[in-house]
Amino acid sequence: MDEFAFAMRGKRLQDFLKGRREYLGLSQEVVAERLNISARAYGNWERGRVKEWTDQKLYALAETLEMTTYQVDRLFRIAVDRAPQSNQQVTAFRGRSEDPSTTAFLGDYRTMMDALSLPTYVVDHRGDVKIENKAYRDLFSGVRPHGQAMPSRSFLRFGLFHPEAPAILAGHANWQLVLLAQLASKLDSNSEDPELQSIRREVLRNESLRKAYLHELPYWTLSSGADPMHHEGALLELHHPDHRIGVKACRLVEETPKSLERLGLTRITLVLTNITESHAPQHGIHERGLARSRHAA
């Protein structure tokens, strides 16, 4: 390929990726975080300055930028001048619905969410984040890359496994117990899902998480009823990185319209309130679960 053709391909790729990223309302930094690469590296990707486009890189881009099957085909043709290969990676890629009305609805829903002041996000049945608003991105903007445990990819993985989670999720053991309840609930309805099974294996490899999952969680769930399984049972504590906001009481509230439910998606909002006597975080969740498990033993 001559220099002019190479430059034109780079410009077409840049226009395509930048247009898709801006349509989703994402910064280069957020996309880079989702890809687990540096912002500088993603800037090079977006400008087409890549030594070799592998299928793995292109599929990662497609999933991060939530592309439809048609858009994936276009990405491949621009980047490597061919259609996607009919192989395992293609089968594994989960393209978004190509229904224009669905695409338009999700775009409008994203715009609506960005207008909200409280951090809110939309997840699929695995807990993978599909849409997040500006308040959610601001809350976790300072979190350093750590594999798949990034809040922009999975709040579940972030709360359980990210080393910086305790700095934001105050009383971290309590948060972990609530998130383990969510994991157990997801496994009840999707027991064979490989991603959920992978999270469970990672939990069981961690000594403190294994103890909480196998011993503390069953007793806490029995005593607290069903609400914690649906995110709304426990009032927790969150330390906002903006010092003007500071420490807040936090409740995870699920409020999902039927239009999202039909797509297999769930919306969760982090409702932040001032800490008062009537809104006091439940500091003893972890300890009470541990005490009950010891008593039963």
TrEMBL record:
Pfam families: HTH_3 (PF01381), MLTR_LBD (PF17765). SUPFAM superfamilies: lambda repressor-like DNA-binding domains (SSF47413). GO terms for molecular function: DNA binding. Residues 17-72 form the HTH cro/C1-type domain. PROSITE patterns: HTH_CROC1. InterPro entries: Cro/C1-type_HTH, Lambda_DNA-bd_dom_sf, MLTR_LBD. This is XRE family transcriptional regulator. It comes from Streptomyces botrytidirepellens.
